[in-house]
Write the structure tokens for this entry.
Amino acid sequence: MSEEKSIFTRIIEGEIPSFKIFENEYVYSFLDINPASPGHVLVIPKEPAPYLHDLSPESSSELGKVLPRICKSVIEITGATSYNIIQNNGSEAGQTVFHVHFHIIPKYPETTHSFTWKTMKLDNKVALELAQKISDNIE
Ligand code: 5GP
């Protein structure tokens, strides 16, 4: 893991300006600089964890409390009829800033839904084994 401060830590510390939406002891929120739609907001923990699975229970819980409140404000203020929460972990998943962040991407009546994926068949035997293994491995 890099020891260098992420661009988001520099935003939290005020070194880089941002259009701030919310701040408390654990969470910071601001407008995405390259919005996918009007009202595209980022919600980040102050803890500089690169991936969601690295985040402490304390930061996770505080993020979980704040995220729905910010979503509610975004849809009320923008008039969006729908929204996506997107949270990328790792380059193959499209992550470009290695500091945990949740995207709130408002969708409007004229928006076409473009975030889709190809599906595969779920084999019963494979599924049973996989679900059990993941379940047993949860710390
Ligand atoms: P990712 O692809 O890692 O999930 O998303 C990173 C997001 O951070 C992108 O949507 C990008 O536009 C946004 N971003 C990157 N640098 C800055 C910045 O300096 N300021 C703001 N406000 N957003 C940024």
